[in-house]
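Box 3.1 — From sequence to structure: U32 family peptidase
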Amino acid sequence: MNKVELLSPAGTLEKLKIALDFGADAVYGGVSHFSLRIRSGKEFSYEDFEEGIKYAHERGKKVYATINGFPFNSQLNLLKKHIEKIAAMGPDAIIVATPGVLKLAHEIAPDMPLHLSTQANVMNVLDAKVYADMGATRIITAREISLKDLKEIKKELPELELEVFVHGSMCFAYSGRCLISTLQSGRVPNRGSCANDCRFPYEMYAANPETGTLFKLEEDEGIGTYIMNSKDLNLGSHIKEILDSGVVDSVKIEGRTKTSYYAAVTAKAYRMAIDDYYEGKEDIAKYQYELESLQNRGYTDAYLISRPFEKHDTQSLDFTMQLGTHQVTGESTEDGEYYMCKYKTLPGDELEVVMPLGETIEFVENEFGKTYEKDGRVYMSFAKLQAQNGKIWESVHSGNINPIKLPTKFPPFTFFRIPSHPDMGTYPKK
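Predicted structure (token representation):
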């Protein structure tokens, strides 16, 4: 049996390493403005991207290069050179969004697998077949597609790989084909520079063209004016249904511009869910404990399992972002010896340890602190905050860039967290 692939976002070289270390089978990311996430594209140099491919391949994992922007005529020569340069690095596939770029990539790198972006909005067998005939080896289907429609595509095109989103930000517009920020700020979403205008609160007015009157519509308290703000996708409770379908080749997590902690926790949660499925078990509370720890806009299971007209809970009208159940306090350095502070930390604070699956640490108690297990989870607390330069701190805060000595060695990029509120830390929220 071929196991489903877990595909995670890689916005930087560090996030690439974290996602793979925490359980992803493959990652996707890009360099330059031809990627649909311009910010992460700038953070990834060609050298870093090539190093990331090497890092993945040394571990038997994959990297998919995103060249899924919508180019202008003036950029076509630059695009050709970019495709050539990326293809020469040996990624495992290139992700493209338009028929023209698909054709061009196939001509430049005929042996390179080509994945069609969700921006192409494939919803049916006819469109899937057209792109497959043009050389696409995988379709990243539209977020609005259903499992039933995926089954129909797989039935007609059994060799075509199908990839679906299971977690991350949802776009107000159909499969991300949005022009709102183009209109308001000149930033073009389908060229990688979306300004997230749908996340803003809006005031609403009514106009009478016959009289020229204009008046503001007042919202009732608690209803909210985030009228285009979609909740975040979370299918962590539906992995069994998705894999039972037998037609999904890859489950994808959105979020190249999100934090390193997001890259780690989403990879870990969905890795647990997938592994549990193949072992014939399921523990939804365990997966959601991790996913609920992330900042989010409220969660929805969206449209893969349910039809769009059956869903009335996909918008967050009264807020744009909320805290998760946990606050990240720090992260270990890549050598696992030191703690880099992300949030106020004091000696004696009980910090929950978030490590990749299968990793263990030594339980110790020494001059620097202690590590221990409680209620099936691993914790660490400092006895003293001693920096790498020997200075002792009474407390450290997010602006403090001094590495703090850990009581024992941790896996690279281990995270430490505390409940966001005293009554948080369990799922579901109290």
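Summary of the box: The chain has eleven helices and 22 strands.
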